[in-house]
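Q: Hand in one record:
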Amino acid sequence: MKLKVEYGNKVVCLPQKAAELAPKATQSELSVLLYLLANERLEKDIDISEVASALKLDEALVNGSINYWRGAGVLSEDGSEKEQSPARLTVKESNGKNGNVISVISGDTPHYTGEEIERLFKGEPKLGEYIDECQRVLGRMFTPLEINKMLSLREYYGLDCEFVLLLCSYCREIGKTSVPYVEKTAKGLIDEGVGTVAALESKLEFLKRFHSVEMLVRKLCGLKSRALTAKEKRFVDHWTELSISKEVIEIAYEVAINNTGSPSMPYMNKVLTNWVDSGYRTGEEVFAGIEAYRKKKEAKEKEGSSFDTDEFFETALRRSLEKHLQTLGAEDGVQGEEVAEG
């Protein structure tokens, strides 16, 4: 059977990403998105109550639907306007990778009254199960205010229950079980465009590795519990992205101690980056590189020619690594040399 689209006098542009997510979206989420696109709501202030009335939906569902598309990346936050009343938002049209993308400025996170919570639970019975499971994962009973915050993540920001539960599980793993911490992390993820379970799984995998590297750096550098500076965080982030093993970071730490007298993170970063650029990511590979360097140096000395340290990662092989060679049973350690700067 062949069908023909009758466009009439108007055409609604639907982002490709929205079409891909349509099978998973609820009826209210699809209705709100189509309403905004089809009723000339672009470049205008939108009254949530007006949309709710037109679609015969609760205002909470309208807010939740809008923020579902925001979390999915179909809607994105626009910082051009700083102040919005809690019940209003601005929608603007701009060009994106898959066509038209709607930018949304939303109001403050709502506070649900007891009556509103009761109505939400009646309208969506699984919300009670969602709250119970969140409490189980975080290992604590929620206060009424905390229930409000967890409901807003689902009903206002439009996050899937699976998304929130996965985030709660991660927060518990790192010892952060407070609801405000979960809420703050969720908002940060939404701002980064992480709004689907698949995107969250990928992000959490990185965050777990980041946390592991951060804990090691804190231990080695004596940072204790203070917050990392922006520069320190960039180093940890860089080492996490490079997937450098803990063993190699520990070796770089000893190199820094023996050559600078302090756990210099800039110095460690220079060493680690040089090793990775040379293809060395594990302790075994680093030691193999050291052995190759030693043999190459011996060959150069036998030939009576000078050795150019630029031929082998300049800052990496220092006298501090003699200790590591000895533990491997090497007969000859790396001879002491000054680190070439730059």
User: Anything to note?
Assistant: Residues 80-107, 309-316, 327-342 have pLDDT under 50 and may be disordered. The longest strand covers residues 88-96. The longest helix spans residues 197-221.
